[in-house]
Design goal:
By secondary structure, the chain is α+β, with helices and mostly antiparallel strands. The chain contains four helices and six strands. The chain has three domains: about 35 residues, no CATH class; about 55 residues; about 80 residues, no CATH class. Helix 3 runs antiparallel to helix 4.
């Protein structure tokens, strides 16, 4: 039996307790098993930023290649002679020829995340926060008072806790939805962003 280091194969013979009338349950054959290792990454803050940067660049290149193939397919439908880069080497070659032009024309915007305002862009555009909590304060206050005055373990108190949690969840969902809409707006209207 070979020792197993890394991802090497290891041969094991069937144990004698599994032997049948013909000498083995497996007909005298050995079983090949693969051994694998699982690793967890624990990157530093700088490494996390570098990994995120590489993932973003890969996503940008993939989307560029997808757009190129779609445009070439449309042109091929119209004239029938346009070459479409189907293979990875062909797409990589096209990307390496075009990436300096693509990178130079990308629009960059700086985003300053704030406390009073959600964000201020380097273009001067100010994005106000969604004020979800401020609009729900009176309802939250009333429900919290109902919960605190209720008798512990009672059905009405449980119901009031449920209603209170629902209002808090609504505040969370409004904030999350606003943030997703804001980041989508940034991604669609600007090529790259740099946070300050």
């Amino acid at each position: 039996m070979a020792t197993c280091e890394g991802g090497q194969r290891e041969e094991r013979h069937a144990p004698s307790c599994l032997s049948g009338a013909n000498g083995s349950l497996l007909g005298g054959r050995s079983v090949k098993t693969h051994q694998a290792f699982r690793f967890a990454l624990d990157p530093t803050h700088a490494h996390s930023q570098a990994l995120a940067s590489h993932c973003g660049a890969a996503r940008f290149a993939f989307n560029w290649g997808l757009e190129l193939v779609k445009k070439r397919l449309e042109a091929r439908r119209n004239d029938g002679e346009t070459a479409v880069p189907w293979t990875l080497p062909a797409l990589r070659w096209a990307w390496n020829r075009a990436k300096s032009k693509v990178a130079c024309h990308a629009d960059t915007v700086g985003v300053d995340i704030g406390v009073l305002r959600l964000a201020t862009l380097s273009t001067g555009e100010v994005m106000p926060g969604p004020r979800a909590l401020a609009l729900s304060v009176s309802r939250l206050r009333k429900l919290q008072r109902t919960v605190s005055r209720g008798q512990k373990g009672s059905t009405r108190r449980r119901r009031a806790i449920f209603h209170l949690a629902r209002v808090h969840r609504r505040v969370r969902d409004v904030r999350r939805d606003y943030l997703h809409k804001f980041t989508t707006h940034l991604a669609k209207s600007h090529g790259r962003e740099s946070r300050t």
